[in-house]
């Protein structure tokens, strides 16, 4: 599991780093203003449906069924099932895409009700360009699920890197050649969907498991899939409705607020995407096998070690982002049209998002235990409650707290969600925190707190007013503070006997020697 965790995490990290470069270019060329707001609304639409139909309820139901069929009934049966699922998904999403293209002004007026005038017209135009990405990326997500079900994580994780590679090229071409950054970047989004689907399908074909399109039919397999995904689809729908409310609220705040929230969330998504997605992706097929074999001890061990691995990296990431929020946003985005003032406001949002980072990651770690049992109902019930809470908190907080309201509401709701998931799994006997996890979690938290104190003191002594420094010096000092924090954290982990630096060095050298010997 650790090898798969690291494989997915490594590729996801590369994708996130390239995504950061892409976002930096967007900030520099579009700033935090009306065109950026319109572009982000256009990007929000296909991503919403991607999470709903692709990476959300559909894959949560599909991957366990595909894995179980492959393990029990063999290659051909699993391949037929994948082809039927892909055909049904693509037909439904093609019809949805056609309707959305026709009625896009109505769609944008709903999701961005605060947009008026040029912002609204630009959002409609850009959304019509980006929406087909939803169809392509959902197909890619299903093929990715096939590969993950086979235990082949590398190709599926690597394919998503192309989104950011093509996105970077599109932004540069749009800004420097065609002088229309938003439009060219929107076309880059859709083109990346074509490339991702093609790359994943090619990988599945090499693995001998490329699903073929057939005329969709409501076979017993499809009815079973729909029954499994139904509750999850409702739950994901509630999630997307809640995210849509966040977007609607942001459009009613001052111009540029959707952009400020977006860039803060993108930084928060770096550790969340790498750790949460990697853990969830690697855990789902593994837990499915353990539960199918009725091996409760293996389920307990897998969940405990996954939580251990994620906390080891998540807690210092959370603490570091809270302590250095404004310098991070200024150093990464404070160029071109994105001002230092924008960076400070976005840093405040980042602090609110980062506070909930452990909860966001643990939700992705705990949820696969339900999906592996074929239970998509319980997470939905929890989701209805916590997302209703999120909605109420959004409405209560956005006026008094402005741009900080939406991320703070999401953080509170995430902690409630995570707690409920853990309690129910514990009652079912699927998750019992072992003494090793409890002890290490406390020591990891202690190491993180010591890191925060040292970094905060260092910033105050050697870099007062860091967000307003000149770009190069600001980035250099931020890098130095981060390196200093990592060193302090490593020393504290060693002092608290969480990770022995000598053992880690020996293990790394041994792994390096094995690779050289191949």
UniProtKB/TrEMBL annotation:
GO molecular-function terms, A-Z: lipid-linked peptidoglycan transporter activity
Pathway: Cell wall biogenesis; peptidoglycan biosynthesis
CDD domains: MATE_MurJ_like (cd13123)
GO CC terms, sorted: plasma membrane
Localization terms from the record: Cell inner membrane; Cell membrane
Keywords: Cell inner membrane, Cell membrane, Cell shape, Cell wall biogenesis/degradation, Membrane, Peptidoglycan synthesis, Transmembrane, Transmembrane helix, Transport
InterPro entries: Lipid_II_flippase_MurJ/MviN (IPR051050), MurJ (IPR004268)
Entry membrane topology: Multi-pass membrane protein
Protein name per its UniProtKB record: Probable lipid II flippase MurJ
Species annotation: Gluconobacter oxydans
């Amino acid at each position: 599991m650790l090898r798969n965790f690291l494989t997915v995490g490594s590729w996801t990290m590369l994708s996130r780093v390239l995504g950061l470069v892409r976002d930096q270019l967007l900030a520099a060329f579009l700033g935090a203003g009306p065109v950026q707001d319109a572009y982000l609304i256009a990007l929000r639409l296909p991503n919403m449906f991607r999470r709903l139909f692709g990476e959300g309820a559909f894959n949560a139901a599909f991957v366990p069924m595909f894995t179980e069929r492959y393990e029990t009934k063999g290659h051909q049966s699993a391949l037929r099932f994948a082809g039927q699922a892909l055909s049904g998904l693509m037909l439904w999403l093609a019809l949805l895409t056609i309707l959305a293209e026709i009625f896009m002004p109505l769609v944008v007026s709903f999701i961005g009700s605060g947009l008026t005038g040029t912002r609204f017209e630009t959002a409609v135009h850009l959304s019509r360009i980006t929406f087909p990405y939803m169809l392509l990326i959902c197909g890619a997500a299903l093929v990715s699920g096939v590969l993950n079900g086979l235990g082949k994580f590398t190709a599926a994780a690597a394919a998503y890197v192309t989104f950011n590679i093509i996105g970077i090229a599109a932004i540069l071409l749009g800004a420097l050649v065609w002088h229309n950054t938003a439009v060219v970047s929107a076309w880059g989004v859709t083109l990346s969907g074509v490339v991702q689907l093609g790359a994943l399908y090619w990988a599945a074909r090499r693995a001998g498991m490329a699903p073929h399109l057939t005329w969709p039919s409501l076979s017993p397999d499809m009815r079973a899939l729909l029954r499994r995904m139904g509750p999850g689809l409702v739950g994901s729908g509630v999630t997307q409705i809640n995210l849509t409310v966040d977007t609607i609220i942001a459009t009613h705040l001052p111009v540029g607020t959707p952009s400020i929230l977006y860039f803060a969330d993108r930084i928060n998504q770096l550790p969340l995407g790498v750790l949460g997605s990697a853990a969830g992706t690697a855990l789902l097929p593994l837990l499915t096998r353990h539960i199918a074999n009725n091996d409760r001890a293996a389920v307990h061990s897998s969940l405990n070690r996954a939580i251990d691995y994620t906390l080891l990296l998540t807690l210092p990431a959370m603490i570091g982002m809270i302590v250095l929020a404004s310098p991070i946003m200024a150093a990464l985005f404070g160029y071109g049209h994105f001002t230092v003032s924008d960076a400070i406001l976005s840093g405040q949002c980042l602090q609110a998002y980062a506070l909930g980072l452990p909860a966001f990651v643990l939700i992705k770690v705990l949820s696969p235990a339900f999906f592996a049992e074929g239970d998509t109902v319980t997470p939905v019930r929890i989701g209805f409650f916590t997302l209703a809470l999120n909605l109420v908190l959004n409405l209560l907080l956005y006026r008094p707290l402005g741009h900080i309201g939406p991320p703070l509401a999401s953080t509170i709701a995430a902690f409630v969600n995570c707690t409920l998931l853990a309690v129910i799994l514990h009652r079912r006997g699927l998750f019992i925190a072992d003494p090793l996890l409890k002890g290490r979690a406390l020591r990891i938290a202690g190491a993180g707190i010591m890191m925060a104190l040292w970094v905060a003191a260092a910033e105050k002594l050697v870099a007062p007013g860091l967000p307003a420094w000149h770009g190069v010096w600001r980035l250099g000092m931020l890098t130095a503070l981060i390196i200093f924090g990592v060193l302090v954290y490593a020393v504290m982990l060693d002092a608290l006997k969480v990770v022995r630096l000598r053992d880690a060095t020996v293990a790394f050298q041994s792994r390096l020697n094995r690779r050289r010997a191949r």
